[in-house]
């Protein structure tokens, strides 16, 4: 196909990713909280690269980097993020940004390639100040008031952070209706599915929604020495039994990929010689099918009623976050699968994403797609996160080819 | 019995207890942490009362109050404590001190009564700076170095507190061998046994020992969205299953009065979107029979091995406190029971104490006995702790009569 643009330059992709790793290095990973000095140097690095892809670089009033093209024809938006979790991995975010940059460098200057790839690095994907603030701002979902209220875990106001990095008062970029044929994002899998089956590309079908609950148990605080076992109303024990009951009963009720997690448990008052009078657990469920979650939530409430009916402890189930699953576009899925056939020997699989990504926000206003590359050992949100160089290169080739196919229509 | 001393003066006992409640009042209870201003004013109050019982009052270098007698004949040591838990009840401690004061006031000046009651108020029974530091000092179990090291939960050094209340450099009183025929202490039950059976006096047979364990579960920290259920090594879930297994299996293995409590649970890192890689529980068992605890601890370790053998999570059981049960003297028990027959219509029952008391420390060097009065609703370590006035008076009468009988030999 002499009219096709050249393939992704694997060595250049690896060099770029290592250049970003050299900013804010922590062991073999990075530490780049949103608006930290290494995060902003990474932003600066990207704005300097974008002209190589014939893109005009701009950083907007919430820290999003956007590279826009004046080339005629269809435009595909592609990207990911440059901020990191604390002391985390080098690929979570930068992989998708560098793939997008590479696709733009290959496609945009090439005269015979249709249209252009525009590059985005969404700010604060890792949620230091909120939840997907950068991409949500772009789709029109963030008010000035919510930026006023945003604070990081240390209590620092987002407004102060924006002022300190020189972005105060700058306009926020908003999506232009019909400017893009869609949004494409690449990411490490953060799980073991690809690695354990020897596959190279995950074709994301959906991004699951996250439902979160505060489940509170109320019993009777009492002396751990003088209160006989038969007289106790131990809220902590009621909580433990509830966790076990979930684990025993959910497998028969859940969907094939549902996951659920109790991430935090607090006993009150939490002293070794006091029977807990109150206990609380943070419980989370993820699925791409709200009907599955509805069934599980019903069961959770029935279980709570059962415990209450036993008369020892009361249980209150409060939903504190309601999931919004995002379906990936069928044409995008097909394009990734076709590109995998050409550049990854067809070693791809369709799978939902259990983690949240900016693509779920972009999917609310345009067709969206995602592809995954394997994660070694499934490790994520840890500095030891990694992917084989060869898999990174394969992923880049599939990504660039997917962009070309989508723009070619 | 014209030669017997008069009975306890119930109105005086209630007036004294209310006078102590008026110092450091919190709602219907008190707030008198060790060496706080209200605690030291309570100490001062007692030292002013002791001469009414022909006792010479002294406060020693660790804050113990001792009222000593020059009367010939046998001497019985009696008392409890004046410090309180934070925002706690008015009777936990003061009841035993005022009963001892009342017994001394009745018996010591009465010419026909044999011997004398000496009064003690042990410092820091509630453990703000350590564990029974006052009574342990009296029996010779506290080194200067351990006082140097003692700190309260705010980090304040016991040495600084002693200096601030004017006790620095003062000698610590030590038990004189053979000075006392034994030690008697009264206390609220802190449980519901007496109340629920309509009884008025608990004849304490033993004070249970407290064994404490740190049980640590190690799994694999991972992403709560991308890690499939089958791949998880959830340390928090392993902990919940362990708690439930304890609750299911211990009843068949424990003694008739064994109690066990999980007072604190910590999941690490404790975030809603992260599968806990590590979890820890503080677990406590109490019994007066070390053989029972040994059997339960063996079972605990077997259960840990079972979990480990399943290969998902490791469990480590570490004993961090070894209980020393204290048996109450048979003659003291009989004297309390006989006095209950005379002054409480025989409505007494023999029972172990599930809570720790200074009597367990004194029991290591002399015969010791304890009596309980009922607690309304079993409430303890809370400002709403209370006992019916009539029960307080009955307890005082039984207490004074027990002292008289023990001194009469």
Notes on the structure:
The structure is a homodimer. Chain A is of the alpha+beta class and about 400 residues long. The first copy, chain A, folds into two domains: about 10-210 and about 330-409, Zn peptidases (Aminopeptidase); about 210-320, Alpha-Beta Plaits. Helices cover about 35% and strands about 25% of the residues of chain A. The first copy, chain A, is built from twelve helices and 17 strands. Chain A has helices at about 10-20, 35-50, 95-105, 135-140, 145-150, 160-165, 195, 235-250, 290-310, 330-345, 360, 390-409, and strands spanning about 25, 30, 55-60, 65-70, 75-80, 115-120, 180-190, 200-205, 210-220, 220-225, 260-270, 275, 280-285, 315-320, 325, 350-355, 370-375. In chain A, the strands form four sheets. In chain A, strands 3, 4, 5, 6, 7, 8, 15, 16 and 17 form a nine-stranded mixed β-sheet that branches. In chain A, strands 11-13-9-14 form a four-stranded antiparallel β-sheet. A two-stranded antiparallel sheet of chain A has the order 1-2. In chain A, helix 1 packs across helix 3 and helix 3 packs across helix 12. Chain A is elongated, with a radius of gyration of 24 Å. Chain A starts with 9 loop residues before the first helix and ends with a helix. At the A-B interface, strand 10, helix 8, strand 11, strand 12 and strand 13 of A face strand 10, helix 8, strand 11, strand 12 and strand 13 of B.
